[in-house]
Amino acid sequence: MKDISDFDRFYKDEFRPVLKRIDAVRLRNIAYNVLSFLIACAVFVTAEKALFHWGIHVLPYVVFWALVFLIPIGSLLLKRRLFREKYGYLEKLYAEQAIGGLLRFVAPPLVLSPWENLSLDVFRSSRLCNDRVDNFSGSHLIYGRLGWTDVWFSQIHAQRREEVATTDKDGKTDIEEYWVTVFKGILFVADFNKDFSSVVILRPRKQGFFNDIRGSLFRNREEIVMENPEFNRFFTVYAGDPIEARYILTTTLMDRLVELRKRANQDIDISFVPPYIYLAMPYKTLFRTPVYRSVVNRKTMRKYFLFLSFFAGIPAILDLDTRIWSKQPQGQRTAV
Amino acid sequence: MDMDIRSIVMITAAAVVAIYILIKVIQMYNLLVGRENAVCCVRSSLDALLKKRCDLVPNLVAAVRTYMVHESTLINRLTEIRAKALSGVLSLPERMELDKTMSSLMHRIVCAVENYPSLWASNNFLQLQAALNEVEEQISAGRRALNASVMDYNNAVRMFPTNILALIFNYRQFEWYTANEGERAVPNVNALFRQ
Q: Is this prediction's pTM over 0.90?
């Protein structure tokens, strides 16, 4: 797996020229935008002056000033529509050459599909969310095979619609709807290296004195206390079958999950649902195409590099490539 | 009249306390029964896994017998142990002891296979080894689960106030599942390489 010094070399030698080319497209877009706005304003003012000069007072004073504001705003909206395609082109360029290029550097076997995401069915089958989901979206699906392990991950945003009813003085009821985020972040799915049949769910353990006391007094019927105290500090395990939970969560895997949690430095929800392992990490939106900022931004690219390295490194951290059990991988092994 | 109200209050309070104690006693008794059942459940699951491993023994013996002439004592011993394990008349400590012996014998046979490259490279043996790895890891998980449930149960048997009920209803501590001395020893890798 490549480290940050490899990234710095790659950025300086290969990646920066690519980003500069994308940035030139972005600057051209902005120039087109400003220019067309100025032209629209000039056309309107000239037309109005000409009409006034010829004595055609078609526009009352109020309408004139309304149009002075309306036309530029209208032209801006029109331009946004017109430039949507241009920004689409910039987005495509940014996704394919910047993010895609970075991904090819981090993990060559992985493929980026910028306008696709893991489906709602996959999200539901992870059993990590019991909430109702009314709106589901996402982007940047990354998939492929790392060694023997098939992986998929993407940004997802699951929302639930809520309604609140308000009644005014006349007894008229108004229903106002609003959206609640159920989950926003990264969903990661990988083929697990062992055969298993039951579901095991790992929730981040809530830290703190009162949570500890509550946990010790009211232990959930399906909660399983593992033998690794550090693991228990980070995760609460729920499973129907204690033997299978321990078959999946070997002492080594528990250590590796602790390491993964420390590297992520934030809560991770994990589930084992045959035949996959699912990880859900809350995250703010990534890979957004910069429109008014430069694309040539080492800090942002470094952040994306660390992000991609983390997720592409999960099979190695969890040792999912070890295939010494009866579950044998299908197809070809890729070089990691 | 005044006395009557006081006695009613006293009787009611005593009844409330008695009912509370009774509920607590029932809860504690149920806790003991529940934890004992959990131990039995995990133990029977572990038995099923041990049986699964016993079922793999004939395959292992068939795969290695023709090649491993020098290890015939080991193979015969393994077959004997398997027959004993399947006889079904063993106590828990005996079963534990047998499981440890079988683990150790199978491990020795699989290690010895490395001296027979043609056997080592055979696809059948590789599949068998994967199945053995899997069942060994399942058994290891079963042992850990058994020890966790035994710990829960033994805590209830020894800790106050459930220990009083355990004494009254004759609940005894379960034995821990421990590794034998051979398994606990640190392997000497240098010696293994020199062999």
A: no
